[in-house]
Amino acid sequence: LGAPLFAGLAGDVEVSFEFFPPKTEKMEATLWDTLTTLAPLGPKFVSVTYGAGGSTRERTHATVARIASETAIPAAAHLTCVDASRDEIDSIAQSYWDAGVRHIVALRGDPPRMGEKFVAHPRGYANAAELVKGLKQVAPFEISVAAYPETHPDADCADSDIDNLKRKLDAGADQAITQFFFSPEAFFRFRDAYTRAGITAPILPGILPVSNVATTRKIAGACGTEIPQWMNDLFEGLDDHPTTRQLVAATVAAEMCRRLYSGGVRHFHFYTLNRAELSFAICHLLGLRAPKVAAAPVLQENAA
Ligand code: FAD
């Protein structure tokens, strides 16, 4: 029958976690609970998204700055080119640098209304590659960019999308994080293609643990990710069973990570949606453990 599915995983993986900026105090409390649960896994970094059209500019900044000042986890801020001039973007970047933030996830962003074509601000950055170049002139940030195993919907073809990824890395980005996907084969085909194109920078697979297929389908359509039929089948009949959906979600995502691990992947980037449970469970199945805290020295009563 072969080795048990999760046997032999040495815990030799690195992880990073993505959050969105909370809107309310309650959501902020949830995010901090999540961070408290995930922090002991020693993420290489955590990142905070930037709402469409810059709609979360202040909240993203406040969240990243708080993580940077109150935790030891390296925090990255997402930043997009949408609806802002180069000067505005450069000044946001400068304020990140001044707040001690050293890592930016540099993105073009999507048009404010879904389905419309992206139009650059007349005095703005036209695409992510230009943004990377601009950010490097503001400060020596570490920069991550986006990559698309199933090709970005705006790309002419898969090869031109890889050329674009290469332009972003050549412009100074250090690594890329992929859009979520549900087929390890799609990731491996993409890896073969970018390796053939001479890309050697780390490309971290973005893992979205799915517990609600209907919601995921809405986002997936816009970003070119395919949701396989077997996934629909798996969640069929579970609409009124949220706990079971979570269990199924963890199983599916952990199995995908295990297959990526077998193919040599050692860094996983989790789209947490600000919840700890699924990402924590998958990391655990991948063999990751929080270091054991050294036992506190016992205070000696009546010590001299
Ligand atoms: P780009 O790399 O600029 O490319 C966009 C498209 O244009 C590609 O198809 C590319 O091939 C094509 N292209 C670019 N330049 C050229 C050129 N010179 N010639 C020909 N074709 C070109 N969105 C948000 O709003 N906020 C976020 O916080 C956010 N975080 C994300 C995090 C990750 C890890 C990922 C994968 C995506 C994220 N997005 C976010 C979504 C992202 O903004 C969209 O996918 C957007 O449509 C493209 O952004 P990009 O940086 O990939 O753009």
Q: What this model shows, in words?
A:
This is Methylenetetrahydrofolate reductase. Its EC number is 1.5.1.54. The chain has 304 residues and is of the alpha/beta class. It has ten helices and eight strands. The chain is globular and about 55 Å long. 38% of the residues are buried. Mean pLDDT is 91; it is low at 298-304. It binds flavin-adenine dinucleotide.
Write the SSE topology:
Layout (H helix, E strand, L loop, with lengths): L13 E6 L5 H14 L6 E4 L8 H14 L4 E6 L5 H13 L4 E5 L20 H11 L3 E6 L10 H13 L4 E6 L3 H13 L6 E5 L5 H11 L5 H7 L6 H21 L4 E5 L5 H9 L19
Parallel strand pairs: 1-2, 1-8, 2-3, 3-4, 4-5, 5-6, 6-7, 7-8
Helix pairs in contact: 3-4, 4-5, 9-10
This protein binds flavin-adenine dinucleotide.
Provide mean pLDDT, rounded: 91
Instruction: Give start-end ranges of low-pLDDT stretches.
Output: 298-304
Into which percent range does the helicity of residues fall?
Answer: 40-55%
Which secondary-structure class do the elements indicate?
Answer: alpha/beta
SSE series: EHEHEHEHEHEHEHHHEH
What is Rg? 20 Å
Which features characterize this protein?
10 helices, globular, 304 residues, binds flavin-adenine dinucleotide, eight-stranded parallel barrel, single chain, disordered C terminus, alpha/beta
Give a short overview.
41% of the residues lie in helices and 14% in strands.
